[in-house]
Amino acid sequence: MKALLFTCMLVPWLVAASARRSDQDSQLIPGSLPARELNGYFRISMFCNSQRAGQYMNRPCFLLQRALPLGDEPDDSPISEGGDPIDLPTCLLCVCLTGSVYCEEVSPDMTSVPTLPKETAYLYARFNKIKKISTKDFADIVTLKRIDLTGNLISEIEDGAFSKLVLLEELSLAENRLVKLPMLPAKLTSFNANNNLLKTKGVKANAFKKMTKLINLFLADNQLEAVPQIPDSVRTIHLQNNNITEVSVNTFCRSNDTYYLRPSLNEVRLDGNPVVLSKYPDSFTCMKVLPVGRYR
């Protein structure tokens, strides 16, 4: 009697468990409905076992599968050469995390700034083949705080390309082909334009003057003939390996104010320039450290 009662309870439980297992497995089959579809793909949430500190625990995993009709075979053929990555959704072409987009060394070649999610705060698009920055590229992404475009082929940036980025704090344009700088956001704390083709005529006299929060300024390995105006807030400035031939009393200090000091400026690099710094002893009296460079 007990065996019969146990059997009556066990059979319905096994049937229900089997149905649940079948429904879960169907989520792993391309074309099944339970998964959430996203631009031709769907994301499937599962749980994976991991062992940490001797204990097993479940953590969410995400599996990306192409949505296909039932009975169709997945298309594993590679993207044809010369395909335009702009044709793909940005978050499939790049890695999108909460507020951050990583588009580094994208294949096929990325030649322009991709369309970004509205909430993007950090963009890393390094080592691609972006050639130009237009005013449209960041016009609608006012949440950006950091842009890193290091290692591209950028030779032109339209004036106003960064004008709407009122929250932008860090901008890196290093290792590109710039011959002039665009108008820069006033709230930048760090600007990097190392390894470009900048000459003094391509950097406006007041390019950095209104940037009262600027801390780090990197302009090394260019073709500058003079030191640009430096805001009082700057702590580090790199100008090594340019073509700077002289400095004046007003380069770092003020000739009309003998009490003027620059206590924040603690690193100035002028090494690799033709200028002989020992010829200008009065040019550094307001500084607590001497520039790194040639003195004889």
UniProtKB/TrEMBL annotation:
Which Pfam family, any one of them, does this sequence belong to? Answer: LRR_8
List where in the cell it is found.
Secreted, Extracellular space, Extracellular matrix
Q: Establish whether keyword Secreted is in the entry.
A: yes
Gene3D superfamilies according to UniProt: Ribonuclease Inhibitor (3.80.10.10)
Its cellular-component GO annotations read:
extracellular matrix; extracellular space
Among the GO biological process terms of this entry, one is: bone development
Give the signal peptide, or none. Answer: 1-19
Q: Which GO terms fall under molecular function for this chain's record?
A: growth factor activity
Keywords from the named record: Disulfide bond, Extracellular matrix, Glycoprotein, Growth factor, Leucine-rich repeat, Proteoglycan, Repeat, Secreted, Signal
Domain of life per record: Eukaryota
UniProt record similarity statement: Belongs to the small leucine-rich proteoglycan (SLRP) family. SLRP class III subfamily.
What is the stated purpose of this protein? Induces bone formation in conjunction with TGF-beta-1 or TGF-beta-2.
Name of the protein in question: Mimecan
What is the organism field in this record? Dicentrarchus labrax
